[in-house]
Amino acid sequence: MERTRLGYLLVAAGGFVGAVARYGVDVAAGDTTGLGTLAVNLVGSLALGVIVGSAATTRTRLFVATGALSSFTTYSTFVGDAVALGTLTGSAYVAASYALGFASAAVGLLIGGRL
Amino acid sequence: MTGAASAVLLVGLGGALGAAARHAVGLRIEGSPSIAVVNALGSLALGGTLAAPVGSAGTLLVGVGFCGAFTTFSSFAVETVSTATSGEITRAARFAAVNLAASICAFLVGTLLVDALTGGLD
Prior knowledge:
The structure holds 2 protein chains of 2 kinds.
Chain A: H1 5-29, H2 35-53, H3 58-72, H4 76-85, H5 87-114
Helix pairs in contact in A: 1-2, 1-3, 2-3, 2-5, 4-5
Chain B: H1 4-28, H2 33-51, H3 55-70, H4 74-85, H5 89-117
Helix pairs in contact in B: 1-2, 1-3, 2-3, 2-5, 4-5
């Protein structure tokens, strides 16, 4: 399934949805603060933890996890925001994103394990 | 100026391609290194895109759409936590540090590279 045309199609369709949703949050949050990126990364990490922790089917994993949630969150814009914020604020932004992101993923995995 | 509808299409198309490309990398590189690879490569590309004279449409398609979706924070976070909770704390810490260091360096290299190539254009 992962390597089939349908597998790629599910991932790409999820990627479309996830990227557009992230763009919507970015526009709502304003461009340069990094807060929109932080928000999508925390929400997406929590939700991905739930999916990974649960016994989701391969199709669900490809569309929702690999496609939508992995594209909803972003590492490149996170790094771009951190660099743009400068050494001091940027470091605090990275530390907050890491600490809160790991906590979100951990909570998600716990929730997913109980489903 | 890009209209709202075309902005959504550009971001969505870039996102679909970025996610599929990330999936292709994931199928070729086993386990957690694939996440570090896409995050560093995507940060390199974003640094280059933001420095390049690609206009708002190019930024939406490649920067926000493709690079944003090709790289992933959620898979990175879940992978780090899973590694740590399986008892491999050192490996988890190294993975988190390598992602950050490689991606920041790649982003800066991408910026400098495109600045050097387009020097004098803008």
